[in-house]
UniProtKB/TrEMBL annotation:
Pfam families: DUF3097_C, DUF3097_N
Organism: Streptomyces humidus
Name of this protein: DUF3097 family protein
Domain of life according to the entry: Bacteria
Domain DUF3097: 39-98, 127-284
Chain spans, region Disordered: 1-38
Length: 287
């Protein structure tokens, strides 16, 4: 008769007995286990929702660790690329960077079709003049890509009081057209009278109705209801800052904060958009 086999470790230091069989502690039925969250490339134009904020928009940019969405009102929001961080058609998904690398917007900030890899063209003889530094910075922010492709340089004048002599010194011609953007170009104003004094067929003076180019930025893009009215005789920028509770002692810093909120042409009023586009077309038209 065979002796019984001991399943306990021998006390004399001999070889160990067989180990008890290990069993999984997970008794969850397969149909109740959570399904893995699918990964979806954050391609431009993909519409998703961030459930924490309810913000729904199309992907316009995907960079290291973040994705930028644009809603139907043109508002932009940046979100981190977290696992299961978005909803796609009601399903939870994880957005990942496209395999081809950082996504590129199919259009420029001005709404024109983007030209990937295009080099800046040699500057034309023609120019676009604007009144001040803020005007030039805003035009560069929205139309900069287009202007480089077309080879158009934008310069600022620090006022248009001497506009007729400035145009005469430039001497515009068929191959060197001059476009000028004027603030507050309203019939009967000083600016209106100055603009009418420019008569060269190779120079085009257009303008917007706003006292300052700040007003050409849509209030909604800045989180305000409207631009305040400033009494006649007061400095407009200073009055605006005081009315809105912004630091009035440094309007330059305030402008930089405003400029950061401008992501594309959708943040600007049409009265400015049309005039800048008109100037670009005029300067780049064939001789």
């Amino acid at each position: 008769m065979r002796p019984p086999v001991s399943r306990h470790r021998p006390s004399d230091g001999g070889p160990p007995g067989p180990r008890p069989r290990a069993y999984s502690a997970d008794l969850t039925p397969p149909w109740k286990k959570p399904k893995p969250v699918p990964e979806v490339p954050a391609d431009p134009g993909l519409v998703v929702e961030e459930p924490g904020t309810g913000f729904c928009g199309a992907v316009i940019r995907c960079e290291a660790g973040t994705v930028t969405l644009e809603d139907r009102f043109g508002k932009h929001r940046v979100f981190p690329l977290e696992p299961g961080g978005f909803l796609l058609e009601g399903r939870t998904v994880t957005l990942v960077r496209p395999a081809s690398g950082p996504s590129r917007p199919s259009r420029t900030a001005s709404g024109s079709v983007a030209v990937p890899g295009a080099r800046a063209r040699v500057a034309r003889a023609g120019r676009i003049y604007v009144e001040g530094r803020h005007d030039a910075e805003l035009v560069e922010k929205v139309w900069g890509d287009d202007l480089r492709v077309e080879g158009v340089v934008v310069e600022y004048l620090e006022g248009v009081d001497d506009l007729p002599s400035i145009v005469a010194d430039f001497a515009p011609g068929p191959d060197a057209r001059l476009g000028i953007l004027v603030d507050h170009l309203v019939p009967g104003t000083k600016e209106w009278r100055i603009a009418r004094s420019v008569t060269s067929e190779h120079a085009l003076v257009v303008g917007h109705p706003y006292i300052d180019v700040w007003e050409a930025v849509k209030p909604a893009s800045l989180g305000i209801e409207a631009w305040p009215r400033v009494p006649h005789g007061q400095d407009w920028k200073t009055g605006v800052c005081r009315a809105l509770g912004w630091p009035s002692e440094n309007t330059g810093a305030v402008w930089q904060a405003i400029l950061k909120q401008v992501g594309s042409y959708k943040d600007l009023e049409p009265e400015l958009l049309g005039r800048v586009e008109e100037l670009i077309d005029f300067v780049t038209a064939p001789a």
